[in-house]
Amino acid sequence: MLADDAPASPTHGPRTVEVPDEALPAGLARAAARWPDRVALDLLGATTTYAELARQVERAAGALHALGVRPGDRVAVALPSCPAHVVAAYAVLRLGAVLVEQNPLHTAAELRHGLRDSGAQVAIVWERTLAAVLAARDGGEGAPELRTVVAVDLTTDLPRRARLALRLPVPAARRRRDELRAPVPAGIPSWHALVAAAAPLPADHPGPAPDDVALLQYTGGTTGTPKAAVLHHRHLVANAVQCAAWTGDPQGTETLYAVLPFFHAFGLTLCLFYGVRTGATLVLLPRFDPAMFLAAQRRRPGTFLPAVPPMLDRVAAAAEESGADLTSFRYAFSGAMALPAATAARWERLTGGLVVEGYGMTETGPVALGNPLSPARRPGALGLPFPSTDVRVVDPEDPDVDVPPGTQGELLVRGPQVFAGYWRRPEETAHQLLPGGWLRTGDLVRVEEDGFVVLVDRLKEMIVTGGFKVYPSQVEDHLRGMPGVRDVAVVGLPAGDLGEKVVAALVLEPGAPAVDLAAVRAWCGERLARYAVPRDLVVLPELPRSLIGKVLRRVVREQLLGEARPA
User: Fold this and answer.
1) CATH number of the domain residue 466 falls in
2) The domain that contains 182 carries what CATH number?
């Protein structure tokens, strides 16, 4: 379905957008000029205006330039969401260098892969991440060729009262201090000291071009070795402009709660790039905590919340328990996993606003589809193509063949936000990016008559049993309605001649009676084809999730395979 051929539908915003011929730092410069005194960042009450943020970025860019960072150099950033992260990211981009986002909670082995694969020469890291980065750097043959590692003390960004409280000689203060800080070996420079001592980058210092590489964002960890999606400034500017069009192009009015981590594509674009471009006040939470969220909400009421469903559930539960007021939130944008109808209804009841589901991938910058921010939203649907975004539904076995309307097939996406390919992986790029700029998503969908796209399942997680195809999400959706079941993951395990068998991993509600396989099979037999009914059952205390709350089916499968192997 091409943008110009899309059926009339209740979109929120234009079908096309004009992507400006500029790089990401232009958005910050414009915001600082237009709203110099508006609060750009709020971390637990410590505020930074847009004018101050722009000055800090220029000084940080000067510090990185003094360290030898030049256009095209890769600079890794491994930090929680905090002012230092915002400043470092924009300073890297201002120099025309390439931002390499890394999860600060990764192990040394995980960091080693990203640092080595990207070729990062400089790393700006949280003190608590420092030991893992140094272990990765000093790991012998094949270690990353890091030239400089800079340590970030997160407490420096805290309000003065909070910094003083950390110095108190009491156990609680010591525990909190240990959560935020770690020893720094001699010779490792301090980020805040470097920035404070640096001369600002000259105003006439050349900046990046729109088609320069801005970001290497690692993805694919749930299906194999993570690989870096190459995103140019133009791709990320395009997605920020598309998001602005979708939300009515707010200018200097939003208070955006940045609860998603910046090291994830969802958080980086929806919070950082979109937020700064539209002059929003970003309320930063270094980690997601409902009590911290509600304390911030009392101090600075929010208007827009990009989040994942588990975050919405936890905030809503905490608000119901404490009586907190959430009615300032006009919109919430949910992604990364299916938005349950009950979660949406609960959030809209407590806020009086809307929550809509969107869809995308790291490779699409990341947003490609969304539900309209209007009563026309459709819970359970991925939504409509974003402005200037085209979609096709094709035969997964032959992506040159479009399937008939209303028939399920693999979703292809094309638009100005679609990435340039995988870093130094031409074969994988050629498989994923088809002629004409079409991206294979690996997701099975169906397009309804009015243009709404509905997810069927992920192609790569499809189970093949006895020659039949089983889509895990369909089985999971049915099992979630079973009394006593709180959560579920469905995976395929080897089963000899059958190929795979369907296995359900359940998490039960507290105090719920035991559930056996016979009961599960009876429940599923009412709605599912016989071959899709689980053949095995395991009850777990919890399901493994990513840092943004997405259930990791791959990890569940690996756990069950490990238990099935003889000792």
Assistant:
1) 3.30.300.30
2) 3.40.50.12780
Amino acid at 246: W
* Within a domain: 167: yes
pLDDT of residue 7: 41
Whether 107 maps to a domain, the answer reads: yes
Q: Tell me whether residue 338 is in a domain.
A: no
pLDDT tens, position by position, 69-92: 999 999 999 999 999 999 999 999
d(CA 312, CA 259): 11
Mean pLDDT of 331-338: 86
For the stretch 269-320, pLDDT in tens is: 999 999 999 999 999 998 899 999 999 999 999 999 999 888 999 999 999 9
- Distant-in-sequence contacts of 196-203, Cβ < 8 A, 24+ apart: 196/59, 197/63, 198/59, 198/60, 198/62, 198/63, 198/66, 199/59, 199/62, 200/55, 200/58, 200/59, 200/61, 200/62, 201/58, 201/59, 201/61, 201/62, 201/65, 201/94, 201/95, 203/58
Among 156, 209, 198, 188, smallest CA distance to 57 is for: 198
Is residue 534 domain-resident? yes
The reported pTM is 0.84
Per DSSP (E only), the strands in 111-267 are: 122-126, 148-152, 213-219, 227-232, 255-258
For 144, the domain range is 48-207
Give the count of domains, the chain.
2
Mean of the pLDDT values across residues 360-381? 92
